[in-house]
Every structure is written in structure tokens, then in C-alpha cells.
Specification:
Blueprint lengths: L1 E2 L10 H11 L11 H21 L6 E4 L2 H18 L4 E5 L4 H12 L3 E5 L9 H7 L4 E5 L13 H10 L3 E5 L11 H4 L3 E5 L10 E5 L14 H4 L7 H36 L5 E3 L10 E6 L4 H10 L2 E2 L15 H5 L4 H5 L1 E5 L6 H21 L1 H8 L7
Parallel strand pairs: 1-11, 3-4, 3-5, 5-6, 6-7
Antiparallel strand pairs: 2-8, 7-8, 9-10, 10-12
Helix pairs in contact: 1-9, 2-9, 3-4, 9-13, 10-13
Bound molecules: pyridoxal-5'-phosphate.
Pyridoxal-5'-phosphate (PLP) binds next to helix 3.
Length: about 400
Amino acid sequence: MIYLDNAGTTKVSAKAKEAMLPLLDEVYGNASSLHTAGQEAKTYLEEARSTMAKCLNAEAGEIFFTSGGTESDNWAIETACRYGKMRGKTHIITSAFEHHAVLHTLEEKEKQGFTVTYLPVYKEGIVHVADLKKAITDNTCLVTIMLANNEIGTIQPIKEMAKVCHERGVIFHTDAVQAVGHIGVDVKDLGVDMLSLSGHKFHGPKGVGALYVKKGVPLFNLMQGGAQEKNKRPGTENVAGIVAMATALNESLGEMEKVNKRLISMRDKLFDKLSTIPHSVINGSKSQRLPGNFNMSFEGIEGESLLLLLDDYGICASSGSACTSGSLDPSHVLLAIGLPHEVAHGSLRLTLSKYNTMEEINKVISAVPKVVSHLRKMSPVWDELEKGERKHVI
Ligand SMILES: *Cc1c(COP(=O)(O)O)cnc(C)c1O
């Protein structure tokens, strides 16, 4: 199997898995218990917190463990909205192509009386700082913009946007789930107030993540219960998952430069070779992009059919076409970068990890053109395009 859906989730690294084992076996105490077994677990938990903090250039007290990226995003938004409401501020700014963990949470906020401005991301898939400057008002309580997009991998000017927000006294949150463990993320340098991350996107386990909260930001509870995480996030800590996540992050930082060099060479080979398919387009900026993200559209095909046929070749890929999730709408990300519906439907996302090899990439480079031309032969739309009854849009 050639696994190229690493933006969806990743394999747990051998080191992360190994780090997890003692916590499932000898060190199974509840980290809140005062006895030796509990305190042993507590030591592992706090060590993991320090490791995470060091990897992000944060203080240990600024790291709050959660169940993953979705919870972290919800928590950050809820915090900024409650604080905003207390001060009579009810305006939020985000981008048009955030993850649903942000977009759907903001839809709920709109129902509660908040207004939301969605900044455009243009053809390149990058927010313009000038647009943020224009959109921000005295009523703005939160700006939330992702660090790297999960579908097209484009990297946003977070540092510049955080600066604009601070000049106006506005809280800035970034969903860095796709960035952490893949490119350098330094919370102090970025100047963000809150930052979301998730273990399973960088070879840690699923169901564990963290929210970085800068000292001084008033953090509200999402849930009520015990006194864990400084009284802010109740529930017995997932120590095994947390330790594995910290191990995976530390590991990824140590090998990042070497891994990224390989990923870029594999990704660029995919772009070079698959761009020769006629009527195709690269989605999003090619330069300001995560090393492991490839995303292209091919005119006249359906993404789902492409995925199913690639699966027959043993290739696990992803598409921006959302039919499989019960909706006929193509990806909001691809529409946000201005793709017409029919082109957005014919998209292919391949997201690489350190476990991929050039041999695998070569197999993909041989399979994709065959599959695309096979699908085009069967497509009534492609037939019309060929006969000139319909105009090519790419
Ligand atoms: C995966 C992802 C999330 C959700 O994280 P989970 O840990 O799966 O809840 C949020 N934002 C982005 C950008 C993601 O890629």
C-alpha cells in the first residue's frame, strides 16, 4: 500500500509507540492521585508538557492538553468570544478556507449573535495582511487564521497578522494542526495568543492534542468537572497519548531538515511529471507551501472515481470533492481559491510523509496519467470538451 493521505492522519512513529508502552503497563496511575503510582504518571505528564513547550518555544504553563485539533479550535474560539462579549465586542475575522473545526464553530457563534468576516485567500491560497487591516474594527474580539491549509498546504503570514491584531488589542488564534511537526513553529516569534495542534498529524496517536495559550490570555472552560489542567480542562489525562505525542513532536523536530529535503524532492517530481497531463492545474502557491503537500485538478474527471481507481493500484489518496461525505458540493477550500465547480470536483491531494519513498512516487507518476485518461474516455463532459461543444476552463 502506498499511503499518501498524511494530511488526513499519519502512522504512529516507532519511537512514539515505544514511549507510550510503559504508560499502558507499569505506569498506569491516575496523574491526579497522590500515591506513588499517580505521582509517577504525573512526572511523565509534566515531562511531556515541558518537551512540547520546548518544541514550540513556549513555557510549560502555557501548554494545555486536549483531545485533538477540533477541541483546541473550539476552546480557543469559545475563550475569545466569551472574553469579547464581556467587553461588548462581537466581531470575528477568519479566512474563507479554514478547517471545519473553525468554520462550523463560527457558524454557531453567528447564531449566538456574533458577526464573522471571511477574508479572501485568492488564487494563491494566501490571506493578504492588507485585507485584515481593512476588516478589523473596534468591535473585533478574535482573529483566527490557520497557519497552513490542510488541503492545499499554503502557509499564511501569521507573524504579520498577529502584529496587526496586537496593535488593535485583538486576540489572535491560529490553527497550526498542519504545520506543527512539519515546519518550524515558534510561538514567541509568531506572536500568537493561542495555537492549536494535534498529535495524529505528526506521527503521534489520534485523540490527543494541545492548545498553546499565552500567559495572560483569560482561558475559559469548555467543560466542567475535575481540577485537571489547572482547573481549565477537566477529565483524567490521556498520559500515554500525551507522552507519545511529545515524543513524536520532538522526533520530528530533530529530523525536520533532512525529511523536508526528501519530501520537497518527491513532491516537486509529482508536480513536474503530473503537470504534463493536459488541462490540469496546480492548486495554490507552489512556493509558500508545506513540503509534503501536492494538490492538482484535472479537467473532465470526478475526484471520487479517481480515488477509487487509484485505490485499485494500492494508492491511498484524497480529493477535495466531498461527495463521499454526503455532500455534492466540492471543497470550500478549492472554491475559495477561485476554481470553478467542475474543476474543483476533479482534484487530487497527495500528502507525503517520511515513510514514503521515491520508488512509490514513481509508481504514482505512472498510475495517475493512465487513470485520468481512462476516466476522461468515459466522461460525457470530456467528450463535449473534445468536440468543442464546451469550452476548456483550464
Ligand atoms: C486534522 C485537522 C483538524 C482536526 O484535528 P483532530 O485532531 O482530527 O480533531 C483541525 N484543523 C486542521 C487544519 C486539521 O488538518
